[in-house]
């Protein structure tokens, strides 16, 4: 099942050289795990509900194990300080939904569980 690394990042107003080095090197850390950018550093075009400060990063992986392997890998761990010294934010790893997922079926299971 597809998994994702999602970041809500808050870059400082002036980007440092380290951020550019991070960006230049990150793809090489993703490649062994089948990771690819789906969204990279885009500010929200419209916030329809709530607030969403910062820039969004979404990276897709073939499996959760691939996402975890990438994040925990030595090459990526070595890059993290280049980003975190210049950007605060939140990063999470999350499973996607399986092929054929139906929200109505999930609602039915939840309804049955509470009744």
UniProtKB/TrEMBL annotation:
Task: Show the InterPro entries listed in the entry.
Answer: Dimeric_a/b-barrel, DUF1330
> Can you give the residue ranges of the DUF1330 domain?
2-97
Segments crossing the lipid bilayer: none
Instruction: Look up the domain of life of the source.
Output: Bacteria
Which SUPFAM superfamilies does the record match to this protein?
Dimeric alpha+beta barrel (SSF54909)
Mind telling me which PANTHER family this protein's record contains? Answer: BLR0684 PROTEIN, PTHR41521
The protein here is known as: DUF1330 domain-containing protein
